[in-house]
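Project standup — Tuesday

K.O.: blocked on the structure for the chain from last sprint. Re-posting the sequence here as requested.
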Amino acid sequence: DVLIAVAEYQKTVAQQSLPTDREIVVLPLRINPQNFHYIQREVTYPVHFIHIAYYSPIKDQHTMFRAFAKVAQAIDCFLTVIGSGYDVPAVPALLQELKITERVTFAGEVSQSDVPNYLDNAHILLHPARFETGCAVIQEAMASGVAVCGTNVGLLADIGDQYAMIAPPQDADTLAKKMMTLIDNPSLYAT
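H.V.: unblocked you, prediction finished:
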């Protein structure tokens, strides 16, 4: 009788949080990479960021919008947001406060079969979650050749800085710096 986690990060959290002596094994969540079009990319302007998630405090889009606003002050860029729940008053108010309303497009929910088309046009996936597990969208972005910049939770904690740009959760300043590091260093972007 074992417990199953989908990431080493999740296993560690479970070991620290659950009062159990049961073995916890990792059974990683995987996507089918054949559903995506790998494209070798280079950074071009305007830089196209993409975020794919429902609106939620756990996904921490407010940190993402703050980081994006810092980057948008320095470079020509825009952000496409895919997912539901963004029709709450807090979102347009924050975008207006950050002066990024014109740089952010909300695509709403899209079918899974349309996700590859959105990824084909993106440079960098932003994933600022406070907690995450296996996170299919990160795998989908990587299968498409899209660079990933996010927080040190879930799958990103497992794979580390070798394969993505990682910042601590809820840290817009560091996330923005990591985004700029990726853009300013073509050799990092291409790996």
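K.O.: great, moving the ticket to review. The mean pLDDT is 92. The beta strands are 2-5, 23-26, 47-52, 77-82, 104-108, 124-127, 147-151, 165-167.
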